[in-house]
Predict the 3D structure of the following.
Amino acid sequence: MSMRISSTRFLALLGYMALAFAGAQPARAQNLTYREVEELPHPPADRRIAYGKDPLQFGELRLPKGKGPHPVAVIIHGGCWLSEYDVRHVGSFAAALTKAGVATWTVEYRRVGDSGGGWPGTFADVARAADYLRVLARSHHLDLKRVVAVGHSAGGQLALWLAARRRLPKSSEMYAPAPLRLRGVVSLAGVTDLKAFGPRCNGAVSKLLGGTLEEFPMRYEQASPAKLLPLRVPQRLIHGAQDGIVPLEQSRAYADAARKSGDKIELTVLDGAGHFDLIAPQSSAWPAIERAVLSLLGKVKEASPSHSSLTAKRR
């Protein structure tokens, strides 16, 4: 995930941005690397705001044009829950959603390798950041009745978990009596089953939860979205068919289980898309991502998947 971006690829992406700002319709990129996504140009956030005292407990707020009240996307970045991967690489993604008319609250949080990261700090940070929207709404005209969580990869697990935490027992370390209610969740190549994903990312799951399933079964039960169904909120799962980091089966199996539990869920598989295409507005995957977020927020009707520049298969 730390591949260096080539000058040719980077110039091509810059060319895309220039054409997009000029109103043209350039050909979209595919199979981007982490480094290419991280280096995409993006405007700075309107504000960087602390939701806690730790230096990593902050979010980036971007507001669309107009008086509002603005619908909100809580954006949670991925990176195997590891401290090496921070909020920077979803800056272009957040800016594009804001341009589409959505206020974005991009959450940074303590991760494995950070003091206080892992269990329970990582989960506590994401929960606290989401609930902090109640404070932000007082001065930024946010519509708390239209809030969705959008997460990529490990962030997809955390986004689904945000919707599921209402189901946690009062005995849980992560229990909160009145968590912010979400209108929906968009999981982009999300990790949905921590047990099945366990061996990947150099054992990042056991690092996140402090040990193995045998050592901490309750942590796995309370952290894995697949174990917390039904979520009782609409969910959109989007996964690239060429994803080599999070297996497509994570989304497929979860979608089947969620549907059987009674949840309203839709899985879109994008042929030709890789793992990082899903967070790059310059990629062929972007129309499907934007459509999913806006539809959950009630800003657009669901469009036919044939409108995407990739082949989208819905389940």
User: Anything to note?
Assistant: The longest strand covers residues 142-152. The chain has one domain: 29-314. Confidence is low (pLDDT under 50) at residues 1-12, 14-26, 302-311. Residues 4 and 174 are 38 Å apart (CA to CA).
